[in-house]
Design goal:
four-stranded parallel sheet, 13 helices, four-stranded mixed sheet, about 15% strand, about 325 residues, binds calcium ion, Inosine-uridine Nucleoside N-ribohydrolase, Chain A, alpha/beta
Length: about 325
């Protein structure tokens, strides 16, 4: 199936840039967001559910189902809880410590069951399904082992994570989403799926500034105000830690954008694996065992048309917040 499919499932660990990815999807007239499966990472999985429900309400899309996903890495024995460093970046509630009222949705459904049904539907009606994870790849790793027809139905999975030619952001080698579950990322990259990696190589090139958040505030809507305040919190952390960047990186929304418009990024075609142990744990690297294999499963984004992406971002997120 082709990448022209127009049904989208997001897989979010709903912190600040996941919220921006959600707004990007909802402001995109060329795709239907059919569900959000939650995971852990920026926050606990349960907080991701709560944040996603609240954001969908704020953005006027209560109809979109929110599903329960993995609450821990494949190898973990207890539910994940974010570190103090992560809570500083995304705020203790994951949304820059902005208060947001959320309707309580009783008993959200199971993410794997939801995905299985969407895969069946996509297989039946011949329409491909876009799946965009912007947290650890644990949900997708679980799906790989339990949903038949997954690879055909999903086409190319565009995920935010990894770093090929630049340093990591949690260790010199590892990017945060991959570091949170290296085994899951390795299973996805070597499990027969076609993937498109939107890693730090490109997300650190796409910067949002306080001029953009000021424009959202001037919209005068509750969503515009909340997104402006939430993102200013995130930008303030970047100003402390990465003052040379002049704003915050647009990690997660770039993955949604590249899923909808693959020509936004220029890619190296490669077969990747993830280092699972030692100092390089969490590193995404070319797989020596598949180096000579002419069939490359991953499109690793190394360049991005930043002006075009920022134009799309401003237009689509602005539409969602209006
Ligand atoms: Ca995320």
């Amino acid at each position: 199936m082709s990448d022209a499919a127009r049904r989208l499932i997001l897989d979010l660990d709903t912190g600040v840039d996941d919220a921006l990815a959600l707004a990007y999807a909802l402001g995109s007239p060329d795709v239907e967001l059919v569900g959000v499966i939650c995971t852990y990472g920026n926050v606990t999985m349960r907080t991701a559910v709560r944040n996603t429900v609240a954001l969908l309400g704020l953005l006027g899309h209560d109809e979109v189902p929110v599903l329960v996903g993995a609450d821990r890495a494949l190898a973990a024995t207890a539910p994940f809880s974010p570190s103090e460093g992560v809570m500083r970046i995304h705020g203790e509630n994951g949304l820059g410590n902005q208060r947001i009222a959320g309707l309580c949705r009783c008993a959200p459904g199971d993410g794997l069951d939801f995905l299985r049904e969407e895969v069946r539907r996509a297989t039946e009606d011949g329409v491909g399904l876009l799946y965009v994870p912007t947290g650890p790849l644990t949900n997708l790793a679980h799906a790989l082992g339990s949903i038949s027809g997954l690879a055909d139905a999903l086409g190319r999975v565009t995920f935010m994570g990894g770093a090929l030619a630049v340093p990591g952001n949690v260790t010199p080698c590892a990017e945060a989403n991959v570091a949170n579950d290296p085994a899951a990322a390795d299973a996805v990259l070597r499990g027969g799926l076609r993937t498109r990696m939107i890693g730090l190589d490109v997300t650190h090139q796409a910067i949002l500034t306080r001029e953009d958040t000021a424009a959202w505030r001037e919209l005068g809507t509750p969503a515009g105000r909340l997104f402006a305040d939430m993102t200013d919190h995130y930008i303030a952390i970047y100003e402390e830690n990465n003052p040379q960047m002049g704003g915050c990186a647009l990690h997660d929304p770039l993955a949604v954008a590249a899923a909808l418009a693959p020509t936004l990024v220029g890619c190296l075609h490669a077969n990747l694996r993830v280092d699972l142990e030692g100092a390089s744990r969490g590193r995404t690297v070319c797989d020596p065992d598949r180096l000579r294999d002419s069939h490359k499963t991953c499109d690793v984004a190394l360049t991005v048309d930043v002006p075009r992406f920022l134009g799309e971002f401003r237009s689509r997120v602005g539409r969602a917040l209006s």
